[in-house]
């Protein structure tokens, strides 16, 4: 199960990827997630859309609730 203290290394990994690609373009970010993080293209696109649609406030609360409910992998199957 996910442990909350694991979030910082993941944030740092994504920050590094964004800095290396020097962009905020959806296409470049999705391609980097596929190439460097082994996301599938549909999952990377969905992740990007979640971020753009919801932002950190909502996603932080969704993370906390998913941990409390012990939901590690959601129903969409990514």
Structure commentary:
The chain is built from three helices and no strands. The mean pLDDT is 90. The protein is mainly α. It starts with 6 loop residues before the first helix and ends in a 10-residue tail after the last helix. The chain has one domain (14-68). The protein has helices at residues 7-21, 26-37, 41-68. It is globular, with a radius of gyration of 13 Å.
Could you give the topology of this structure?
Layout: H1 7-21, H2 26-37, H3 41-68
Shape: globular
> What structural category characterises the helix and strand content?
mainly alpha
Residues in helices, as a percent range: over 70%
What about the largest sheet?
none
Radius of gyration: 13 Å
Strand content: under 5%
Distance between the termini: 16 Å
Q: Got a strand count?
A: 0
Helix count?
3
Question: What order do the SSEs take from the amino end to the carboxyl end, as H and E?
Answer: HHH
- Our count of domains comes out at 1
Q: What are the low-pLDDT stretches, counting only 5+ consecutive residues below 50?
A: none
Q: What average pLDDT do the residues reach?
A: 90
């Amino acid at each position: 199960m996910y442990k909350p203290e694991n979030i910082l290394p993941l944030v740092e990994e994504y920050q590094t990827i964004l800095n290396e690609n020097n962009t905020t373009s959806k296409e470049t970010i999705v391609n980097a997630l596929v190439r460097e993080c082994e996301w599938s293209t549909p999952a990377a696109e969905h992740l990007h859309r979640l971020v753009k649609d919801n932002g950190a406030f909502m996603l932080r609360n969704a993370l906390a609730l998913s941990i409390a409910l012990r939901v590690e992998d959601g129903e969409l199957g990514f």
